[in-house]
């Protein structure tokens, strides 16, 4: 699997394209990402959303114009952020095609033979999730290199963030699992898990 990464918009939000067997999967298409995606994708399978903040979903409506049959998968608790411009940013609402029901904490979906696992880690947003596929984590705004997502926005919750960080610290995946965040540089699971007690203490 080949991973393409490009940062877009004023917050330099990372959009990812996963390429394998002449197919593509798109993660978090932010402001201005649609042109790049159109150039890179010949046979897109799906768009996957880590969470509903506008800088991660801004180009969804544009992509639906370009690829009308391309399905959008979104955590159910963040669907309202796609369906309305709740932050008054000029976002064109776009209803997701499939809601990820991950009340049990993890939801696995298969798309063209590739398994994506959504780990529900609320706090930054109600539906905030990280997505694991083939030994890679796409963490959205939950975890960054030596940092964590904010929990003081509208619809954020500090107590849920603490609980999610604790769950993340116990995630039983290889410590060398790469993490591809929504902003900034890549990191690794073990390199961030060791800092979780400090982050929890500071919230």
Q: Can you characterise this structure?
A:
The protein is an alpha/beta fold and 203 residues long. The chain has one domain (2-202): Metallo-beta-lactamase, Chain A (4-Layer Sandwich), CATH 3.60.15.10. Helix content is 24%, strand content 32%. The chain contains seven helices and 14 strands. It has helices at 33-40, 54-57, 60-66, 79-83, 158-169, 189-193, 196-202, and strands at 2-8, 13-20, 23-27, 44-48, 72-75, 98-100, 106-111, 114-120, 129-133, 136-140, 143-144, 147-148, 178-181, 187-188. The strands form three sheets. The protein has a six-stranded mixed beta sheet with strand order 1-2-3-4-5-6, covered by helices on one side. A six-stranded mixed beta sheet has the order 7-8-9-10-13-14. A two-stranded antiparallel ribbon has the order 11-12. A hairpin with a 2-residue loop joins strand 9 and strand 10 (136-140). The longest helix has 12 residues, at 158-169. The protein is globular. The chain starts with a strand and ends with a helix. The mean pLDDT is 97.
Give me the secondary-structure topology.
Elements: E1 2-8, E2 13-20, E3 23-27, H1 33-40, E4 44-48, H2 54-57, H3 60-66, E5 72-75, H4 79-83, E6 98-100, E7 106-111, E8 114-120, E9 129-133, E10 136-140, E11 143-144, E12 147-148, H5 158-169, E13 178-181, E14 187-188, H6 189-193, H7 196-202
Parallel strand pairs: 3-4, 4-5, 5-6, 10-13
Antiparallel strand pairs: 1-2, 2-3, 7-8, 8-9, 9-10, 11-12, 13-14
């Amino acid at each position: 699997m080949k991973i393409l990464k490009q940062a877009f918009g004023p917050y330099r939000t990372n959009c990812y394209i996963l390429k394998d067997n002449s197919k593509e999967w798109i993660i978090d298409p932010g402001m201005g990402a649609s042109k790049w995606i159109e150039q890179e994708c010949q046979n897109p399978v799906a768009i996957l959303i880590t969470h509903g903040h506008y800088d991660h979903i801004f180009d969804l409506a544009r992509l639906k114009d370009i690829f009308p049959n391309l399905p959008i998968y979104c955590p159910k608790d963040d669907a309202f952020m796609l369906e309305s411009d709740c932050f008054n940013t000029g976002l064109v609402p776009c209803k997701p095609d499939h809601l990820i029901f991950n009340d049990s904490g993890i939801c696995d979906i298969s798309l063209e033979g590739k398994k994506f696992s959504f780990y529900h880690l609320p706090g930054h947003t109600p539906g905030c999730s990280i997505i694991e596929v083939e030994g890679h984590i796409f963490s959205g705004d939950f975890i960054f290199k030596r940092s964590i997502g904010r929990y003081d926005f509208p619809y954020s919750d500090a107590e849920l963030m603490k609980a999610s960080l604790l769950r993340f610290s116990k995630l039983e995946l290889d410590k060398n699992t790469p993490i591809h965040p929504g902003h900034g540089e890549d990191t690794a699971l073990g390199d961030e898990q060791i800092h979780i007690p400090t982050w929890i203490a500071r919230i």
